[in-house]
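re: ur question from yesterday

yeah so i grabbed the chain u mentioned. its 156 aa long if i counted rite. heres the sequnce exactly as i have it in my notes:
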Amino acid sequence: MYDSIILRNVSRLMFPILLLLSLFMLVRGHNLPGGGFIGGLVAASAFILQIIAFGPAYVRATFQINFLNLAAFGVIFAALWGLIGLLTGQAYMLAFWLKEPIPGIGKLGTPVLFDVGVYLTVIGVTTQLALALAEEPILYPIQRPPARPDAVAPEA
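ran it thru and got these structure tokens back, copy pasting raw so excuse formatting
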């Protein structure tokens, strides 16, 4: 955690912007560059920015998300959408698409839902890794001693 009022204010402002950008990357990824992996990294960067600005204890207390469970859920969610092909007697991960495109989004189908699972997995793994590194006392030693009331500021 860095003791910077500018970093804290910018991180508060950037958190929702980065999450919206990550959702945009997720949704447009099946037609254009982007997708679940890149969107998940952008969303994880929003959480990592909060870790840098406020510290890991703040992130754990504020969001109360078990990021390992989120990653596990994402893997299961992604794998389940591949089973639809097997249940219909076709290949695993066969894509099924809606007939009509949704305005502003395009055609949606099972690959998009697979990408949602990848998105959740990347957020969970990346953020949990960042939290583990930030909570390691050897790697995260920034502890400032309290200011002494009798200390005099050095002259310039």
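noticed a couple things. The two ends are 28 Å apart (CA to CA). also The CA atoms of residues 30 and 118 lie 13 Å apart.
anyway ttyl
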